[in-house]
Amino acid sequence: MKPAAVSRYRRRTVYEVYLPMQRSVISRMTGVSTGLILAAALAATDAAAGTFTFDKSHTEVRASWDHLGLSRQSARFNDVSGRLDFDPENPEAARAEVTIKVASVSTGVAALDNHLTRTKDYFDASAHPMITFRSEGVRLTGDKSAEMSGALTINGITKPVTLGVVWNYLGPHPLGTVNPTLKDVTVAGFSARTQILRSEWGIARTIPLVSDEIRISIEAELQLEPLQTGSAN
User: Is the pTM of this model over 0.85?
Assistant: First the structure.
């Protein structure tokens, strides 16, 4: 047998025998991996529908206003609680209930915080310690955006408002792979914005030096509540 013939024979062995086998193995592995990924995604979607509660340590409601035409000042409410019923397959059916503790407001100026919460010039916290929002409807505006309408109650006065909401995330906790306590936790994240006239809720002091218009921004992280299972009789 000539050297050239031996060389051609060896090339056929490598390219015609080994590589088809390799492609077959890779194809089977890819198919298995894709199937596992799809199954995990479907399972996560099924598990993600339900009732979510607000994570207080990663939720804030911030209000800002024009101060004398010089700047925009703001305050943050640090105690926000509530729940959200949400199904990613039917987001228009979402319902939210939020409660904000008036006394948790923080402007960074202690004297102003006391004035806001301990007198009747702004929030009548002694008579109405909570601000509440209860949603009444959702209208989709995009793949991950919507308008949520509802009733906002401040100082015992209830008025309609509409929030522009963006759905940031829904799925397994991003730290679940490194923190065992978060391994099986499903979380959601939303951002929302709205604008109100504070005078409509009876808060008119210092207008127009301090603006009637208040911009409200909300950043919220929520955790899916575990399903409740009934005990067998």
Answer: no
